[in-house]
Amino acid sequence: xxxxxxxxxxxxxxRYWRAYAVWGFCALLVAGLWSAILVQSRLERARIIxxxxxxxxxxxxxxxxxxxxxxxxxxxxxDQIATExxxxxxxxxxxxxxxxxxxxxxxxxxxxxxxxxxxxLVADYPIRGAPNFRGRENFEHHRTNASTEAFVSKPRRTxxxxxxxxxxxxxxxxxxxxxxxxxxxxxxxxxxxxFSRLFxxxxxxxxxxxxxVGMDGVIRARLSGGTPSAGQDxxxxxxxxxxxxxxxxxxxxAASPLDTERRLYGFRRVEDYGLAVVVGRTEATVLSxxxxxxxxxxxxxxxxxxxxxxxxxxxxxxLLRLEKSQRALRESEQRFSKAxxxxxxxxxxxxxxxxVLLDCxxxxxxxxxxxxxxxxxxxxxxxxxxxHPDARRxxxxxxxxxxxxxxxxxxxxxxxxxxSKLLMTVDYTRLDGADCGLASFVDITGRQRIEASLRESxxxxxxAFHHNPVALAIRRLSDDVIIDWNPAFEKMFGYRRDQIxxxxxxxxxxxxxxxxxxxxxxxxxxxxxxxxxxxxxxxAWGEASHVLMTVDYIVLGGENCALASFVDITxxxxxxxxxREREELFARTFHSNxxxxxxxxxxxxxxxxxxxxxxxxxxxxxxxxxxxxxxxLDLYAAPDGRRQTFExxxxxxxxxxxxxxxxxxxxxxxxxxLTTDFLVLGGEDCALTSFLDITxxxxxxMRxxxxxxxxxxxxxxxxxxxxxxxxVVASLLGMQSREVKDPEALRMFQExxxxxxxxxxxxxxxxxSGNLAEIAFSDYLAQLVEHLIDTHQxxxxxxxxxxxxxxxxxxxxxxxxxxxxxxxxxxxxxKHGYDAGAKGKIELEAVRLDDGRVRLSVADDGRxxxxxxxxxxxxxxxxxxxxxxxxxxxxxxRYASDGGARFEMVFQPEDREARRLAG
Length: 919
Fold this sequence. Notes:
The chain has about 900 residues and is α+β, with helices and mostly antiparallel strands. It has 26 helices and 34 strands. Strand 33 (about 890-895) and strand 34 (about 900-905) form a beta hairpin.
């Protein structure tokens, strides 16, 4: 609390002390009244409880005496049974005894004598079987205690006799043998509820409690709320241990451990029998009348208190009103004085009867340049500060008729001669019983200068408004009418001035979405400024465009108006839309691409995004990758791959289809083809890396390469074995030819061996060649010619074979027939073209023509072909073989005889090889 607040409260307390004193006196009266009520209430409650405690004590004594008398009767009955049992030589008929002594009347159930071993010796009812009471409470008590006092057992249900199943208390006394030892005991079974019925004869009110409890804590009989019970154990209750078990009688207040009801208890020991009677009445029952009276006391106290407070409040209120009225009067005078002397408006008071100035404030003195003593007490005509006599005369006429003057423009001259323009206001009042005029003057000289400046400002605003390239419009808020707009507005919206004049915004359908207009109007009604609000508009031609609208508020001609400006952003929106579409296209292409792709920032090597294929390929989740650097993930299996990528990023050189080995999340190594390009995202230089997992393809290539190597080895082995087998055939034919004597047969054997040799040479070339699909035909021709020259010795010494062959390669399907054809043609040239010892030459040519076909030719300068030679109808096996093989190659066979014999065969090897591979 500040010191100013404290001082103000102290001042208020001093001012209103009478009211506070009345309130304090009333409060003391009420406090004294309630103190007396509370003290009296407590004393009465204490007296009631004390009386109830005394009654409980007396009742406990009475009930204890009745219980003692009942048990004394049982004690005497037990002594009588023991005496007669001993005098009858232990053959007492208890049934006859019970009838004779009327012993089986209530509250007794049965009589019995128990032997030293617990056997039931005698009973007032027929004994069935041989019941034994060893271990029972009464038996164990008398066996271990030599006392001859009666013992009262805990309540229990009987198990034998005519009253089996009923609750019973067994009262017993010890029987001693002649030597003083234990000889058994006599007992009487009693109804425990006899004591409950005894308790019920005393009405203690609802929920009252009367209990007969043993010193062992077990209740022998109990009556609670009119309901009898027995057998409860309260030995663990602290109240029992601290009160009943230690004292012979006493009082205590506590909640019952059995039903939690709070009661006033009194208890008394039953002498000689180890029992106690406990009587308890509930506090609610004892104090019921007290509660009723206390409510009455409180009601009377409340009524008296209300009367005291009401009367005190009325008196204090009157005192407060009186003090507030006096205070308001003082404050009013102070406010007037402060308002008069502290006002910046020049104010003066003059008496109307004699035109004398009674008072003036400092502002009036400054206005005239006079001190207060030069003004007060003088007439207005003596000071003569009006410049125009007409103004002075008009003011006097109005004041004589008591007409108020409001805002009359006058000119005055101060003491220095300076003239000022003022607005004069005159009102009337009474002071000290005289009619007075209260005149105030407001200097408007500066306001006129401000008005001139305002006109200039309005002119500048008009020029800025109408020549602004931004579309501007002004609408009146009271009726939503557009009152002005500039040419840029007409150009943007396409409306002529006559189409807009006097129209409201709602009458000109410029908003594409009606909801936008409603939102803008709602904000305008609340006076909220709009900055760059994006809206869709429609011009006079129906074309829609997007603009940024800004709305501010001005006052024109005393009317609240809204100034709205519009900037066309249609082209920008189109560019933004195109940019979003491209970004969406990139995102869709990126994330749905089956090729693994990732984007990383170059300045810190952090991964910004990856697609699903990237996650799948490397086994990472997207959250495990984004935000991590490539180095942290350890993706590259070899440092060279990481170094190459880093160098590419530094130099901004794209990477195209580079084989790199990556390590997946599980540590597995995969082979990928890596491509890296560069782009800019969010102003950051980034690298777009994509890779394709070629691990399986590499494995497949390795398997194919291995299979090809195995196939090459196998083919070489096949070609080698075929060559060897053909060599064996050729050798067999040669060996067989040595056994042939017929020249013709020998020739046939030799020709067959030569043909087999030509085929064997093809397989030998394939075996030695690195390419198992085709052979270098020129090398084959060299070996074939060498073989034929050896075969046709000595004739071939004078007739050499000149070979001209280009870089020609033929497959086995083509090379074998070609070899057989050339073998036949050269062999025929030797056999049919020359005699022994002749000289000549044979020319062999194998070339590829410009159109891709192959030409094989054999020409000699020997005898030439016989007259009418026809290769297709000759009987020569070799020539028929040449024709057949040419047809097999789908070639064309030509021959001529001009200075020797010339054979030429042309065919297309590629067509045949392609069909063979395709088929």
